[in-house]
Amino acid sequence: MMGKADIVLPVMAVASAASVLGFALVADMGALGAAIAVILLAMFALGRKLWTSRKANAFRALQRERDSRCVKAMSQHRHDWMNEIQLLTSYVKLNKLDKLNETVETIREKAMRESRLFRIGTPGLVLVLYSLQGMHPHLKLTWHVAPDFFLDISDELEERMTLLVQHVIRSFAEGAEGAAEHSVNIEMSMNDGRDAVLDMTLSWEGLARDHTVEMMERIRRQEKRQRCPDLTCETELAENFARVTLRVPQRGGAAQEV
Predict the structure, then answer these.
(1) Which is deepest, 21, 36, 186, 219, by most CB within 10 Å?
(2) pLDDT one-digit tens code per residue, 50-85
(3) What b/e readout covers 174-205, taking b as 16+ CB neighbours within 10 angstroms?
(4) Where are the domains of the chain?
(5) Which CATH number fits domain 119-253: 3.30.565.10, 3.30.2010.10, 3.40.50.720, 1.10.10.60?
(6) How high is the pLDDT of residue 39?
(7) What's the CA gap between 59 and 49, in Å, rounded?
């Protein structure tokens, strides 16, 4: 928020310029041009101050939102691992070695999937995918990352892609709350042309047709707002699933081990 002190000087400048203009009209019409110039400069200064303040407030709001998502994601991560540890402890106490080995293998596979997600090269997208599950606990969100998948793209393209992925998942999570079952599976791979491909499959059971159509319309509208030459989006709608496929060209680069 802008404080009173932030607008005092521009307002005083406008008031002073208005006084000069009034005097010019009475005393000397030749001073009219100078007075108008003063007023325009003062109005520009005020507008610039307001624009800068709004931009700073928007940036701080975005930072707070991302910080909040990060904290929620870490909290959910800690909660999930505590459950896994408790499960392992109970199997050890009960001497259920078969269940223990099975659970350890499940944990190992989960850790490998997360490791591949963390090294895809786009922190913003990683945070969105890792935090949305906690924000929509009724939604089953899974991802599978190919070993060679890596995003080497511009910051602007990363932001556009992240916003679109976030909007797709949120739109589906909110629109499919009435479904008996609903899940999102994301396949990340590289095609033959070495473009990065995110294939999002949205599945549901018992969701009304008009709800699915509206959901896809919202996704398409968002895609149009995020449209850019380097980001292509394809959509497909069937009876009980939808598919949203994003493709982005690479600048070069390779995944790094985490």
Answers:
(1) 219
(2) 767 676 676 566 667 666 766 776 777 777 778 888
(3) ebbeebeebbbbbbbeeeeeeebbbbbbbbbe
(4) 5-56, 119-253
(5) 3.30.565.10
(6) 65
(7) 15
**pLDDT mean across residues, the chain:** 76
pLDDT for residue 257: 42
CB atoms within 10 A of CB 46: 16
CA-nearest of 214, 118, 218 to 167 is: 218
Confidence band for 245, pLDDT divided at 50, 70 and 90 = very high
- Sign for the pseudo-dihedral over CA of 62, 66, 71, 72: positive
Spatial distance between the Cα atoms of 257 and 112, rounded to a whole number of angstroms: 11
Q: What is the pLDDT of residue 187?
A: 93
Q: Kindly state the helix (H) or strand (E) to which residue 236 belongs, with its residue range.
A: strand 232-237
Q: Scanning the structure block, which residue is given the tokens 């959901």?
A: 215
